[in-house]
Amino acid sequence: MKVTLILMIGILSSVAFGAARPPARPNVVFFLVDDMGWRDSSCYGSEFYETPNLDRLAQEGVRFTQAYTSHPRCVPARYSFMTGKFPARAGVPGRNYNLDSEEFTLAEAMKAGGYATFFAGKWHLQKTEDQAPENQGFDINIAGGHAGAPPSYFYPYNKTRLAGHKTEGGLTGLDEGVEGEYLTDRLTDETVQFLEAHHAEKPNQPFLVYLSHYAVHTPLEAKPELIAYYEKKLKGMSFDGLEFIQKDGTTKMRQDNAVYAAMVQSMDESLGRVMATLKKLGLSKNTIIVFTSDHGGLSNRGATNKRPLATSNLPLRAGKGHCYEGGIRVPMVVKWPGITKAGVITDRVVIGSDHYPAILEMVGLPFRPQQHLDGVSYADTLKGKEVERPGLLFWHSPVGRPTSTGDTSCSVVRDGDWKLFDFYDENRTELYNVIADPYEANDLSVKEPQRAKELLEKLRDWKQDISAFTK
Asked: Which of 103, 144, 247, 447 might form a disulfide with 133, Cβ 3.0–4.6 angstroms?
């Protein structure tokens, strides 16, 4: 009788105080920006762009100074986010430019763990229907298809307005809208509506929101009132030196594009609206936010190309398309409520494939090491541990675009402080200490021949192991 009474009291206490209830798995918002450079926000040092919401997220969470993409172009970078692999494993780019439908994506892993999964924006990983977001683990897909850029940022989105802009395919699911509606706002509206509806209908089910903006990719189009604001701001600024230099093709040396600045602000306002919605719904204390970009900003073009350039990644070298730091180093901020301390800045190295296992660890789902082969969770860093990422980092860019973005085909390995380039078509290498020389101004391949030789052997062994594509 006494034992029964004790058991009953224990059960009642558990119900009353929730002691026996497992803690709710955290929600996840993965906020991805397209073509946003490492220094394209005020919290990363820009004096022109204004990003108060990203700045606030950085003040509340952890800001990474050595976060990298797995590739300096859109498709392979996004492939890595979804698969946890270096894209060269699947011949992306080169043999393949899509997501193999047999991959078990991050979204599928989250869905298998009981998560509702929502996608909005740029997918750019499909050729056939079975590669679409809704067939790769997402319950809902808004505007995600094969398109790499919108024909226009203003409704109707599938009608090009900017002279010279080539469309890359239609945006699906956004056929209805209001004339002049802005795409970044529309994708945010869709995301907010999902958050509100899901909270009302299934408040106990955790969710993954993958908001993948087309912004700030070309075409360079923004709201007129914001453009006017930045044009006025420019009048009070001065710049030293040349606007362009002939290096790595042609390099833009200034952040002075008012249209691009306005696009950055609209993107930042989107982040602010998402954060405000989470707070309004009482979800902010149990929602992880990961903010990043797919690769570096568009700062370079072919030497004879006259395409408009969006930004400058200085003091980092080069930009989109290049495996120099300006092309592969990206902004990254993570807030994990109850875990991350406010305002932490870390130099922990992270690469795009690491998000897959890190998110699984943060939400308490099992690792899938046979899938995310090249991913290493950075959750330990978020918990405050001072640890270095184990293993080598590799980049393989076999489809150079010298006339478009000024880059040529190369392979790269980073081992600790050292980074080696193999421009294999040109039969030459470059070696940099990216800690002592993050601007990659001093090639040490001649001064450090033995180190260069050892790193080149490691790089070639890796390429052979994965059967890397070379044209």
From this structure: 144
